[in-house]
TrEMBL record:
This is Dihydroorotase. The gene is pyrC. It holds the Pfam family DHOase. It catalyses: (S)-dihydroorotate + H2O = N-carbamoyl-L-aspartate + H(+). It comes from Phytohabitans aurantiacus. Zn(2+) 2 binds at D149, H176, H229. Binds 2 Zn(2+) ions per subunit.
Amino acid sequence: MNAPHKYLIKGVSVLGRPKTDLLIQDGVVAEGDAKGAEVVDADGLVALPGLVDLHTHLREPGREDAETVESGSRAAALGGYTAVCAMANTSPVADTAGVVEQVYRLGREAGLVDVQPIGAVTVGLAGERLAELGAMATSAAAVRIFSDDGHCVSDPKLMRRALEYVKAFGGVIAQHAEEPRLTEGAQMHEGEVATRLGLTGWPAVAEEAIIARDVLLAEHVGSRLHVCHVSTAGSVEVLRHAKARGVRVTAEVTPHHLLLTDERATSYDPVFKVNPPLRPASDVEALRKALKDGVIDIVATDHAPHAVEDKECEWAYARPGMLGLETALSITLSVLGEDWDLIAERMSRAPARIAGLDGHGHDPVPGAPANLTLVDPAARRVVDPAESASRSRNTPYAGMTLPGRVVATFLRGTPTVLDGKAVK
Ligand SMILES: NC(=O)N[C@@H](CC(=O)O)C(=O)O
Ligand SMILES: [Zn+2]
Ligand SMILES: [Zn+2]
């Protein structure tokens, strides 16, 4: 590719501020001579720091029919992302230096976003003994986040050991908070709708009990804990309490938990089956408030592509999970409104800090690495699953009209998306 390495983004509003021109040169936002630069007309567009997703399932190795590092990276770039953290529940599991290095290398080869592998906490996600955390940390992938996501590290002694272990190198344990004994056979949120539909419930306390235990463990050993996909009002209260005590805990919420409720299950359409399950409106309200006031630190997609045969079947047999990368910004925009500074904080700066991705999460101002995205806030689009860059089609937003459109994304000064289309 012989793209010019100089771009002039003309008439852009950086985070809603008055219009300006941004010169992109040699991988950074520059000042100086724009002569010879390719002009990008950014009239009406808002520049944000490139988004960072702390929770992405890329399915490679093992389920390349559902997603690959490359297809997921393309979906991410189209969604405005410049970095994603790839979850470890692949096949083989990312529980060794070899597998995390493979995912890291595939990310570099795709070259559409920075792919930062997450390592498993336990061997094979089996919850029995710790994986090679140190070897993954010192590998070429330099893993800092460890998670058994998809499964909860439910053994408190193992969880304690993991928290202690990663403290030495500034790592963090990202917990999928689900007490497995309380969710046996669970199909959806335990509540009125589940009773009506006759489906086994996933009670809020299964999440809240683990978060309560883990913030106490994190406090006890002085380590960092991150809570994946927080979904209940009770979890928010536990987190609020822990943060007030000074516990080193951060938390994420997904776009779908900010928008959709358990009422969706009445359709019996498995596209709405997800872990943790969609919750009632009162929880959605509490999550929105917590995202605004900072008890929840970030929006993370939990992009979970699944092949057609795993999704278009009976509810009980369908795999949980939904797509998220290409719609996350639009949904966050509809929830938070055009508060660009807050959106940048929750979708770029804070996740970059938590993940330790130093090159990301910087506002696009002179001197910063040129990882940025240009958004048209006035655009509206109807979600069409067939248009997704993902290999899977399990978006819960099909047919919905969403605000905002990503027009361009730059990774270290090179466009990955231009005119709303992937460059490669
Ligand atoms: N969220 C989901 O429902 N599914 C995820 C696993 C997970 O995030 O727990 C998946 O890997 O498919
Ligand atoms: Zn999970
Ligand atoms: Zn997940």
